[in-house]
Design a protein that fits this description.
By secondary structure, the protein is of the alpha/beta class. The chain has ten helices and 15 strands. Strand 14 and strand 15 form a beta hairpin. The structure holds NADP nicotinamide-adenine-dinucleotide phosphate (NAP) and guanosine-5'-diphosphate-alpha-D-mannose.
């Protein structure tokens, strides 16, 4: 049987690395778009990155395609050459706060990027199946306490606005040009491979460093924001399942539970034998370890956003029904997975 061929855009990121491992296990030939950088940026995929460009000798490994979502020419050349059956677009400037600092760049990659890929699919090989990584951030501070596929978008950051454009472009190419193009509207999902400047990984790494006396305090921003945190590894399997459905469609993926940043700090602290209690208000609030009476957490207003999304909580019942999927990893388990792995990574001087 001929092997299926996938192109993953954003393969060096958290999700791209898990998806690549999953597709390789499914016997796909996996090509991954990697950006040129002056320092290695392939830490998350080094264990499955081929040294060859030849599909035959790259069995069970990723073939690297140098590229960038900013270049239509580059995207077209890659698609024309490898003729994938499936494209997963996970590439993005994915940090909400940073998007306020580089809005134009964020729009170019996050909003126009998907258009460039879909236009190439339309013109080169319209039977390619396309998955767009959309975001719960598109819901913004919603009037609905629980958000699903029918909830109105209310994007409140350059990142969220750009993702909303990517979402609609995906739907337009599906409706107008009959391309199999689906949106996976993902609520926050975390793992040991999460980027260091997202709050969960930052908390885990920061508390371990406080514990190891490498630093005195961990500085955070809005402690009261609530997020629906799932496990990234599980969400990547869903991406593949969505492209195996008979019809392209849009699905929310979420756990239907949510916790605050404060909850995450307490849970990660507990795994590290801290007992964190809170004192003070606003920017003067501190988290203290009750066992030692030492301040561990401080607030730095730098981490506040011009407009933060206060609460996200997903209803993924449409997905549960379509692919019989339910999340397996609880919040507590996710925190433990992240803390345990981080301790190991630090011991081995490794950073994902
Ligand atoms: P991530 O770790 O930040 O990875 C983003 C990937 O995009 C990296 O491979 C990055 O490459 C690549 N990229 C950045 N700019 C690019 C460009 N100009 N051209 C091509 N590739 C570029 O993000 P993630 O957490 O894996 O998320 C995957 C996707 O899902 C993203 O689109 C994100 O916006 C979306 N999403 C994520 C979540 C979540 O909670 N994780 C929730 C909803 C939606 P480098 O490694 O070179 O930077
Ligand atoms: N990053 C960060 N750093 N966030 C902090 C901090 C801090 O020091 N302190 C508090 N927070 C709060 C943020 O204000 C936000 O309310 C919450 O923690 C989560 O922030 P992030 O982990 O940066 O994630 P996000 O929710 O903004 O965005 C992530 O999820 C989206 C889906 O809802 C990213 O993965 C996006 O790419 C994704 O689309």
């Amino acid at each position: 049987m001929t092997k299926k061929r996938a192109l993953i855009i954003g393969i060096t990121g958290q999700d791209g690395s898990y998806l690549a491992e999953f597709l390789i296990k499914k016997n796909y030939i996996v090509h991954g778009m990697v950006r040129r950088s002056s320092m290695p940026n392939t830490q998350r995929i080094d264990h499955i990155l081929s040294t060859s460009r030849d599909e035959e000798s790259s069995n069970k490994k990723i073939i690297r395609e140098y590229g960038d979502l900013s270049s239509s020419e580059n995207i077209q050349n890659i698609i024309r050459r490898i003729k994938p059956d499936e494209i997963y677009n996970l590439g993005a400037q994915s940090h909400v706060k940073v998007s306020f600092e580089i809005p134009e760049y964020t729009y170019d990659i996050v909003a126009v990027g998907p258009l460039r890929v879909l236009e190439a699919i339309k013109n080169i090989k319209p039977n390619i199946k396309y998955l767009q990584a959309s975001s719960s951030e598109m819901f913004g501070n919603s009037e609905n306490n629980i958000q699903n596929e029918n909830t109105q978008f209310n994007p409140e950051s350059p990142y969220a606005s750009a993702k909303t454009l990517g979402y609609w472009t995906t739907r337009n190419y599906r409706d107008n040009f009959k391309i199999f193009a689906s949106n996976v509207i993902m609520f926050n999902h975390e793992s040991p491979r999460r980027g260091l400047n997202f709050v969960t990984k930052k908390i885990v790494r920061g508390l371990i460093e406080v514990k190891n006396k490498k630093r005195k305090y961990l500085y955070l921003g809005n402690l009261n924001a609530k997020r629906d945190w799932g496990y990234a590894k599980e969400y990547c399997e869903v991406m593949w399942k969505m492209l195996q459905l008979k019809k392209a469609d849009d699905f929310v993926i979420a756990t239907n539970t949510h916790y605050s940043v404060r909850d995450f700090v307490e849970a990660a602290g507990k795994e590290l034998n801290f007992e964190i209690i809170w004192k003070g208000k606003g920017t003067k609030e501190v988290g203290i370890d009750k066992k030692t009476n030492k301040t561990v957490i401080k607030i730095d207003p730098y981490y506040f956003r011009p407009n933060d999304v206060q609460s996200l909580l997903g209803d993924a019942s449409k997905l549960y029904k379509a692919i019989k999927w339910k999340p397996k990893t609880s919040f507590k388990k996710l925190v433990k997975i992240m803390v345990d792995k981080e301790i190991e990574l630090i011991k081995n001087h490794k950073i994902y």
